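Milestone 3.1: sequence recovery, worked example.
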């Protein structure tokens, strides 16, 4: 793959008009937004170099961050239902007791037989071994602490913004070293 092609694979991070990181798009789409005036470059210390995009006659330098100049229309979102698929996704397909990624099941933190509900706060991903070891007990009783306190998944925009700033800080620390 040529350097130019590789550049095209680098994603551009889009900020909303009010400076919140909202999504990641391919560099070509970012270029279209810039050229049509729907976005402008956003300067942020340590955000990386501009990405060259070649057309037959010229080179555009696309900034790694852009900011929309219009209001960002948010798609409606609500907390998803507690399904196996959504719980596994929230827990990153990892047993919340031992970290295993194999033979995953769902576990009621407070067992159902003892009044535990089917809610986001009471269902976690557990491997078969941990699930049967824990049995009809709470994590405390079984002496099996949870790796994360179970809670509903966060809004995708919030999750994206948190991820962006975490990565940004990490890159800045790396640059300082
Ligand atoms: Zn486990």
């Amino acid at each position: 793959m040529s350097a130019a092609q590789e550049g095209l694979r680098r994603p551009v991070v889009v900020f909303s008009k009010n400076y919140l990181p909202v999504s990641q798009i391919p560099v070509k789409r970012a270029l279209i937004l810039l050229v049509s005036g729907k976005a402008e470059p956003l300067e942020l210390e340590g955000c990386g170099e501009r990405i060259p995009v070649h057309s037959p006659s010229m080179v555009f330098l696309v900034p790694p961050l852009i900011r929309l100049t219009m209001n960002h229309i948010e798609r409606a979102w609500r907390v998803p239902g507690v399904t196996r698929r959504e719980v596994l996704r929230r827990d990153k397909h990892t047993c919340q007791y031992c970290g295993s990624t194999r033979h995953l099941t769902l576990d009621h933190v407070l067992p159902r037989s003892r009044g535990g509900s089917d809610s986001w706060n009471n269902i976690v991903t557990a491997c078969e071994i941990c699930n049967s070891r824990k049995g009809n007990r709470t994590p405390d009783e079984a002496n099996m602490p949870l790796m994360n306190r179970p809670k509903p998944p966060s809004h995708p925009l919030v999750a994206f913004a948190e991820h962006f700033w975490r990565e940004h800080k990490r890159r800045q620390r790396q640059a300082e070293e």
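The pocket of zinc ion is lined by residues 95, 97-98, 100, 126-127, 129-130 (CB under 6 Å). The chain has six helices and eight strands.
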